[in-house]
Write a structure and sequence with these properties.
This protein is of the alpha/beta class. Helices cover about 45% and strands about 15% of the residues. It is built from 16 helices and 15 strands. Helix 3 runs parallel beside helix 10. The chain is globular, with a radius of gyration of 22 Å. The structure holds pyridoxal-5'-phosphate (PLP).
Length: about 425
């Protein structure tokens, strides 16, 4: 966009060469590596432009038409636009686009509806849950009494009967449905039934699957969960940030949960970026994108399963899957660092009933949202699958696996993301 031409004689107009060089190195890194981190994606230049806009200069505590600062007429316009677009995308009646991140969105919901020591029932971290769903190191685990449900040992999938039984025993004030590393469809209808039977609120954290829901590749939580929280930077392919969706009757509670409850002034430049991303997700092409993410994921997962790797839960329904490395005598840490050194970037991940710590882990998590965003398809998934398989099976033989680096980089370079 390049809409800025500095007029002020006082402001510094010199580019910061040091920072610019680091940014260029990061652009190169993103271009030359195949990113399979399930929570990452590439924001479009229009999103990046909006994020880098003069809206960063503006203080705007409050909400449209109710601000604590003057000069907010265009802030009101951009925030209202972002809200309207998000409501259109998810067919919702109320949303808040101010959360700085997914954790901020979750924390604001807790503050809005819970009192300290109230009970939460959420998914165990090792089984796919998130730190902000009650981990002892997170505010959620310190302020509330948290109980965790696990996946079934056999199927490694959620067992809704067990969750219901737990909910009946524990009587939580809030049940959380949502995950960071759960490769299967989440049945929000079943969660609604459980919440209704036990008198709990239901919060769906769709941080990972927001783009899949927007693209009709995962059943929606809207209309079922009392509160839906999410992030804009994962499958939704927008700027880093969060959002909350709910019925209108919760508007004041949730708005105050964000400001002044847990945040100060909104990051209006990020809200501008969100507005752009929501429009992009409303385009018909986004549905195709979401479909391709899942197709690519199933293809890559299926390939690696045929190569003999144990896939947690036996497969995937969404944008990610987990490989259990236990039989290979390697940790997730070994696998992720070895692959990263060969230009294939993914993350180590705990798996259900993992005996290793989150620093080592017995698994890796693989996601296809970013690779799909750069235009990769079935053919590329096959190549990437072959390389991952080869590297994992020969990871201690550096000489043998070294040529994969050049191959992965060449493939990445055939699908450039950004140029400068
Ligand atoms: N909720 C879930 C389910 C997530 O997977 C994540 C991030 O990975 C978050 C919340 C937190 O998002 P953020 O990093 O934006 O705070």
């Amino acid at each position: 966009m390049q809409i800025y031409n500095l007029q002020s004689p006082v402001l510094n107009n010199k580019p910061d060469k040091e920072v610019e060089d680091i940014i260029r190195k990061e652009i190169d890194r993103q271009n030359h590596n195949i990113t399979l981190i399930a929570s990452e994606n590439y924001a479009s230049p229009a999103v990046l432009d909006a994020m880098g806009s003069v809206f960063t200069n503006k203080y705007a505590e409050g909400y449209p038409k109710h601000r604590y600062y003057e000069g907010c007429e265009y802030v009101d316009e951009i925030e209202s636009l972002a809200r309207n677009r998000l409501n259109e995308l998810f067919n919702s009646e109320y949303c808040n686009v101010q959360p700085h991140s997914g954790v901020q969105a979750n924390t604001a919901v807790y503050l809005a509806i819970l009192k300290p020591h109230d009970k939460i029932l959420s998914m165990n971290l090792k089984d796919g849950g998130h730190l902000s769903h009650g981990n002892v190191m997170n505010i959620s685990g310190r302020y509330y009494e948290v109980h965790f449900y696990n996946v079934d040992r056999e199927t490694e999938q959620m067992d809704y009967e067990v969750i219901k039984k737990m909910a009946k025993e524990i009587r939580p004030k809030l049940i959380i449905a949502g995950a960071s590393s759960y490769p299967r469809t989440i049945d929000f209808k079943k969660f609604r039934e459980i919440a209704d039977e036990t008198g709990a609120y239901l919060m769906a954290d769709i941080a990972h699957i927001a783009g899949l829901i927007a693209g009709d590749m995962h059943p929606t939580s809207i209309g079922l969960a009392d509160f839906t929280t999410g992030t804009t930077h994962k499958t939704l392919r927008g700027p880093r940030g969060g959002f909350i969706i709910a019925e209108k009757k919760y508007a004041t509670l949730l708005d105050t949960g964000i400001f002044p409850g847990t945040q100060g002034g909104p990051l209006v430049h990020m809200i501008a970026g969100k507005a752009v991303a929501f429009k992009e997700a409303l385009e018909p092409s986004f549905k195709k994108y979401a479909k391709n993410i899942v197709e690519n994921c199933k293809a890559l997962c299926g390939f690696l399963k045929n190569e003999g790797f144990r896939i947690v839960s036996g497969g995937t329904d969404n944008h990610l899957f987990l490989i259990d490395l236990t039989q290979l005598d390697m940790t997730g840490q070994d696998a992720s660092t070895t692959l990263a050194s060969l230009n294939i970037v993914l993350n180590k991940n705990v798996i259900p009933f993992d005996k290793l710590s989150p620093n080592l882990t017995s698994g890796i998590r693989i996601g296809t949202a970013a690779a799909t965003a750069r235009g990769m398809g079935m053919e590329e998934m096959q190549k990437i699958g072959e390389w991952i398989s080869f590297v994992l099976k020969n990871w201690q033989n550096r000489t043998k696996i070294a040529p994969i680096k050049g191959k992965a980089r060449k493939l990445a370079d055939e699908f450039p993301v950004y140029n400068y």
